[in-house]
Amino acid sequence: MADNTREITMRWRGTGLMFEAGPAGRPAVVVDGDGDTATSPVEMLLVAAATCTASDVVLILKKQRVALRTLDVTLRGTRRAEQPRRYVALHFVFTVAGDGADEAKARRAVELSLEKYCSVVASLAPDIPVTYDVTLR
């Protein structure tokens, strides 16, 4: 498979709106279309955005010589009331702890991720406002 393409397989579990999905040869994730017993598809989009930007932040802080101890990301997505109930706003809260971490380094890492590197956030509709806060622990 070419480096610039990705492929997953999704399989209905046979009841309700329960599905398993993932790339061939790797563990599948369970997705619940109702969001009752597993992460829903729209929540999974938040998971993807949070982990994508967190991956960038970890790598950028490492380049800034921060010895990261913890990184927590909370992501709140606001959805439209009417169909399609797409996200209309995203707000990230990054909580960072590590030797050498300061607010300027953390904010720079987050800004680089959200504005340049995070492919998930870049794949979202361009009219979605993305905001963030940074807290040092």
What does this 3D model show about the protein?
- By secondary structure, the chain is α+β, with helices and mostly antiparallel strands.
- It folds into two domains: 1-39, no CATH class; 41-136, K homology (KH) domain (GMP Synthetase, Chain A, domain 3, 2-Layer Sandwich).
- The protein contains three helices and six strands.
- A three-stranded antiparallel beta sheet has the order 1-2-3, with no helix packed on it. A three-stranded mixed beta sheet has the order 4-5-6, covered by helices on one side.
- Strand 1 and strand 2 form a beta hairpin.
- It starts with 8 loop residues before the first strand and ends with a strand.
- The mean pLDDT is 96.
Number of domains: 2
Class from helix and strand fractions = alpha+beta
User: What is the assigned CATH homologous superfamily of the largest domain?
Assistant: K homology (KH) domain
The dominant shape is globular
Q: CATH fold name of the largest domain, please?
A: GMP Synthetase, Chain A, domain 3
Mean pLDDT: 96
Name of the level-1 CATH class of the largest domain: Alpha Beta
